[in-house]
Write a structure and sequence with these properties.
Blueprint lengths: L2 H8 L6 H13 L4 H18 L4 E8 L14 E6 L3 H10 L4 H9 L9 E7 L3 E8 L10 E8 L3 H5 L5 E6 L6 E5 L5 E5 L5 E5 L12 H18 L3 E8 L4 E8 L6 H12 L4 E4 L3 E4 L2 E9 L12 E7 L13 E6 L5 H8 L4 E3 L4 H4 L5 E5 L4 E4 L3 H9 L8 H6 L14 E5 L3 H13 L3 E5 L2 H10 L4 E5 L7 H11 L4 E6 L4 H9 L2 E6 L4 H23 L1
Parallel strand pairs: 14-15, 15-16, 16-17, 20-21, 20-22, 22-23, 23-24
Antiparallel strand pairs: 1-2, 1-3, 4-5, 4-10, 5-6, 6-7, 8-9, 10-11, 12-19, 13-17, 14-18, 18-19
Helix pairs in contact: 2-4, 8-11, 8-17, 13-17, 14-15
Length: about 550
């Protein structure tokens, strides 16, 4: 893409249709390097051997950024029912779809040039689907409702994702045994199936299946269990493509974050308020090995025994971090131990499985009884009695991106690790409690902010006179000058600074004064670090929008 073509694609404004078409044509007709062709064919032969029959493949796009911060939904090519002999050709077509007119326009709209366009292609064995569809682990139209939504159609799922025909819709309870609460069954006369000559095509639905549900309640219940396990692993609401094969086996085809329009700050406040209504069973003990929130029946293991039958949702509470418990970690909602370092083998497995874990509490098996339901907040290191629905909902609905995962960050180049929204936002933290600064600063830095912290308000004032901070987070009750004086000083020095006041001495009067003086948020201690982080992210987004408006 060098020369005039690269220049045309780089130019500001909409590139001509002929330029985009030429870019797509060049990629589609390019010669795939010999070593890559050989590697693809070797991998396909391995699939052929395991398939044991005539193999058809699905080639799916996986571009940089796709289904991360942005979905690129439907903009890149997916090739279904591909014969083995056509794999190389279809590979080129999928890569070329990076330069399809809609994909180019979408990237340009989000400020990305063609140099950032990179494409991997997933090659999977095609599922001969009896039925298929999409599962949302929450209802996007009503995310606070405790349900999940499933769409289904006979045959392949193309009709479901493209919205070209009526499909069945089911609303299921998120709680076991996941009964169907609502069902809308449509008449279905056509379905997509694999064509014997390659590709897929529309065929008639057998008469006996046209007016009945595309999928059984048994498969729906199994799908709900699997979908919620995926959601728990991903730690956010999910959009899941699935299929049921001819033998009734459930197959997960694709998983991506579900875009849910929700007020994370308001939901965070609800979660914070809810925790005060629940009895704290354990707090301030141990080390967090894997962050997250889990819920279930406590299964207490005090020796080397292996528990018998386990409930669907359980929290493993163990005396020691014994390796024989490793097999239980993938099934657990959370793990708590009396003894065992956050650097030990069991802790490593909890991180690999993304299971919330608090290690080395010393007393967990003494204070947590076997059987009762508990909620483990491995963000703050607290265990609550019962199910704290608001806390669980907060974890699911807060905005999450795979780009922020430790696994993604460790595997990707530095240019992908900083959120464009936060990379230029400077935050000043002022609190005379050193522990507050020590806990808050790394949380914000992990989200890409440039952060400085001070335990002295006077030292903060000196720094505010030198540096143009965008956000000030300040305690209220401090030695002279106090938080209100610091707020007033900051607003004089930097009229556009956004101030967040935090305090353990919250009253209606102090809140009113802080807001009148120009604070944008007033937060009472104790607060959840994740809640304050979401407040700062919201402010950063506002700063970004204001900067864009000024540029225009």
């Amino acid at each position: 893409m060098s020369g005039w073509l690269g220049q045309e694609l780089n130019d500001r404004g909409e590139p001509a249709a002929s330029v985009v078409a030429e870019a797509e044509r060049r990629v589609r007709q390019c010669r795939v390097p010999l070593d890559l062709r050989r590697a693809i064919r070797r991998a396909v032969r391995r699939l052929e051997r395991s398939a044991g029959r005539s193999l058809r493949l699905a080639l799916r796009s996986s571009a940089v950024g796709e289904d991360g911060e942005r979905s690129f939904a439907g903009l890149h090519r997916t090739a279904l029912g591909v014969p083995v002999a056509q794999v190389i050709d279809e590979y080129r077509r999928v890569v070329a779809s990076l330069f399809g007119p809609a994909a180019v326009a979408y990237r340009r709209e989000h400020g990305e040039g063609w140099q950032q366009a990179s494409m991997a292609v997933g090659c999977l064995r095609m599922v001969d689907a009896r039925s298929s569809g999409v599962a949302y682990t929450v209802d996007p139209a009503d995310p606070q409702r405790d349900v999940m939504v499933v769409s289904a159609a006979p045959g392949l799922g193309k009709l479901v994702v493209e919205g070209q025909a009526g499909v069945d819709r089911f609303v299921l309870a998120r709680r076991p045994p996941h009964p169907v609460l609502e069902r809308r069954v449509q008449r279905k006369e056509k379905m997509y199936a694999v064509d014997a000559q390659g590709g897929i095509g529309l065929v008639p639905v057998p008469a006996a299946r046209q007016a009945v549900p595309a999928v059984s309640d048994r498969v729906l219940a199994e799908l709900a269990q699997v979908a919620l396990r995926i959601e728990r692993y991903m730690k956010s609401a999910q959009d899941i493509e699935w299929a049921e094969d001819g033998s009734g086996r459930l197959v997960i085809l694709q998983v991506r974050p579900l875009e849910v329009v929700s007020d994370a700050v308001r939901i965070g406040r609800q979660a914070q308020a809810a925790t005060k209504r629940h009895r704290v069973l354990l707090s301030g003990r141990g080390t967090i090995a894997c962050r997250g929130i889990g819920y279930g029946q406590a299964v207490v293991v005090r020796g080397d025994e292996t528990p018998g039958e386990l409930p669907p949702d359980f929290v493993l509470v163990a005396r020691v971090s014994s390796p024989h418990l490793a097999a239980l970690v993938p099934q657990a909602s959370a793990v708590i131990t009396d003894v065992g370092a956050a650097t030990g083998h069991l802790a490593t497995i909890t991180r690999e499985c993304r299971v919330p874990a608090i290690m080395d509490t010393e007393i967990a098996t003494q204070v947590l009884a076997h059987g009762p339901e508990i909620t483990v907040d491995a963000e703050e290191g607290v265990v609550y009695e019962g199910r704290v629905d608001e806390l669980l909902r907060y974890q699911v609905l807060r905005r999450s991106s795979t780009e922020e995962w430790r696994e993604f960050r460790s595997a990707c180049p530095e240019t992908l690790k900083v959120n464009p929204m936060t990379k230029v936002v400077k935050v000043c933290i002022v609190d005379d409690e050193q522990i507050v600064c020590e806990r808050l600063q790394p949380v914000l830095e992990k989200n890409g902010f440039v952060v400085e912290s001070f335990t002295s308000s006077r030292a903060a004032m000196e720094r505010l006179a030198e540096e143009a901070f965008h956000i000030l987070i300040t305690d209220l009750k401090m030695a002279h000058p106090d938080g209100i004086e610091l707020l007033r000083y900051a607003r004089r020095q930097l009229p556009e600074i956004h101030v967040v006041v935090i305090t353990g001495f919250a009253t209606e009067e102090t809140a009113r004064e802080a807001l009148q003086r120009g604070a944008v948020e007033f937060i009472a201690k104790p607060f959840r670090l994740s809640y304050l982080r979401d407040v700062v992210l919201r402010i950063a987004e506002q700063i970004r929008q204001e900067a864009e408006a000024r540029e225009e």
